[in-house]
Amino acid sequence: MIQEFKDFIAKGNVMDMAVGIIIGAAFTAIVTSLVADIINPVIALFTGGIDFSGWFYALNGETYPSLAAAQEAGAPVFAVGNFLMAVINFLIIAFVVFMLVKMVNRVKAAAEKPDEVAPEVHTGPSELDVLLEIRDSLKR
């Protein structure tokens, strides 16, 4: 049973998947930083300084200075800004993954494409042809 498990782990697909998950987790931090540090300020610039991460509605009817204050008070909130940022993160990640898959498929297609076949050059009779000719000559 242990040998079967070792064989399973050693297969390429499992190892590829593990590497993909690790890289994906690291990539998430990069995309989160991209959205928070680059995209949000640009969006805020065009929307008059609105910070989406602080956009929330307290469901108990009270007013709070920030989302953190409302959550600390235990108020039920719709954190619309956090949801919007999650959607933006997803769209960016999905687009980048799409581009990576497209690039990998293009590289695979180029690798699988057969090389141009050189035209067949007649180099003279084959060994079999020569032997057959000798046999026929000896029969006469």
UniProtKB/TrEMBL annotation:
Annotated function = Channel that opens in response to stretch forces in the membrane lipid bilayer. May participate in the regulation of osmotic pressure changes within the cell.
Q: Which family does it belong to?
A: Belongs to the MscL family.
List the keywords (alphabetical).
Cell inner membrane, Cell membrane, Ion channel, Ion transport, Membrane, Transmembrane, Transmembrane helix, Transport
What protein is this chain from?
Large-conductance mechanosensitive channel
- Report quaternary structure and partners: Homopentamer.
How this chain sits in the membrane, per its record, is: Multi-pass membrane protein
Record's keyword annotation contains Ion transport: yes
Q: Which organism is it from?
A: Histidinibacterium aquaticum
* GO MF annotations, alphabetized: mechanosensitive monoatomic ion channel activity
Please give the start and end residues of each transmembrane region.
17-35, 42-59, 79-101
Subcellular compartments: Cell inner membrane; Cell membrane
Q: What lineage does the source organism belong to? A: Bacteria, Pseudomonadati, Pseudomonadota, Alphaproteobacteria, Rhodobacterales
Q: Which GO terms describe its cellular component?
A: plasma membrane
Its gene is mscL
| Entry superkingdom | Bacteria
Classification via InterPro entries:
Mechanosensitive_channel_CS, MS_channel, MSC/AndL, MscL_channel
